[in-house]
Each structure stands twice: as C-alpha cells, then as structure tokens.
Amino acid sequence: MADLLADPAGTLAVRIGVAEDILTPAMANVFAGFSEGHREIRLDVTTGLSRDLMRRYRAGEFDIIIIKEAKAAADCRASFAEPMAWFESASAVRQWTDPIPLVTFPPGGLYREEMFERIEREQKRWYIGFTGSSLSSVLVAVEAGLGISLLPSLSVSERNLRIHAGLGAERSMAVSLYVWEGPARFSPLVSAMIALLERRCA
After folding, report:
1. How many of the other CB atoms lie within 10 Å of CB of 151?
2. d(CA 160, CA 142)
3. Minimal CB count within 10 Å: which of 68, 85, 92, 197?
4. What pTM was computed for the model?
5. 70 and 7: one domain?
6. What separation in angstroms does the CA of 47 have from each of 5, 71, 91, 127, 133?
7. Is 182 found in the same domain as 155?
8. What is the pLDDT of residues 111-144, one digit of tens each?
9. Which domain holds residue 132?
10. Do the strands 64-69 and 12-19 form a parallel or antiparallel pair, or are they unpaired?
C-alpha cells in the first residue's frame, strides 16, 4: 500500500485537444514519448473539429490545443501556414458538370464554409455529394470520384488525388497551438509539439 501511495504516476493531468488531421503518427509518438519519460503526468488527448476545440479551450476544458483556423489569434503560442487546394480523384477521371458535387465535412467544419464561399464566388452551381465526419472518409470519397473537395495539401501526399485545375490552390490556413500557462513540467511537451509542427509545415 505504501508503494502505491508513493507512486506519482498520473497525479498531474494535461488535457490536450488536437484537430484530427494533426494527430499524425509522428504527433502520437511525441505524446507517447513524453508519457514514458514523465510518469507523473497523465495525458488526456481528444480529437475533434477545430472550432469546437477552441470553444472548449476558451471554456477551460483543455490545457493545450492544436487547431486549424483562418487566422491565428493574438494569444496563440505558435502558428504555421498550411497550404490548401481543391482536389479530385487522380484515377476516376470525370468532367464535372453543372452542378458540381462537393465532398464536405459536417456543418461547423472550417473547410466546409470556405468551400461554399469560394465556389459561390466563382458563380458555379453545386450540391453536396458526400459528407464525411472524418478526414479519412472525405479522402476516400474524393479518391472514388464522388466529388471535389478543399483539403490541406499536406494530408493528401499519399493519396490518389490531384489538384483540380479549375479551382486550384486556395489561401493557406493557420495551424495554431494554444496553451494555458501551467506547470513547467509539461513545457518540454509543448516545445516538442511546436518543433514537430514546424517540421511538418516547413
């Protein structure tokens, strides 16, 4: 019993929110490596939509978040530009007729509103051909030729996709890290997360 009481494992919780496409194997390895070297700290990692993660962060539900946003707020710890572009299947070649089918995220997703704004600015008619609740499902639908979609360029490098010639590149999104000031013991984790994002977006 005395040994159990003396074991500091998990006595300090760090709540982290991460946009789904930022939780790569490399980022997961950062969390795992930190946990292994800091047994007294318990990481509680949640993925979700960027806007929901920011709302919960502002409400005090997270200690650290990494999100996508149109422009970083003044209190972000670090922010990096991520290229965006419109993609279509590289093998299921289609001549997109009027209206154009769009592959989207659910309402509230950041890319969804950017898509609608751009395509209406181009005065093109459109309809939602597929709605996916995850980046993986959206990528699969675009690969299959169900429509075109606005996506982060770094997320499609290993997929059978190509840039849609008609719409092409879009303005970059900000990948931003926010952190409440907390114990110095998890500052190495923040530094490792920032270093990984810097390499990712270089």
Report:
1. 25
2. 9
3. 92
4. 0.83
5. yes
6. 32, 20, 31, 28, 12
7. no
8. 888 899 999 998 889 999 999 988 889 999 999 9
9. 82-172
10. parallel
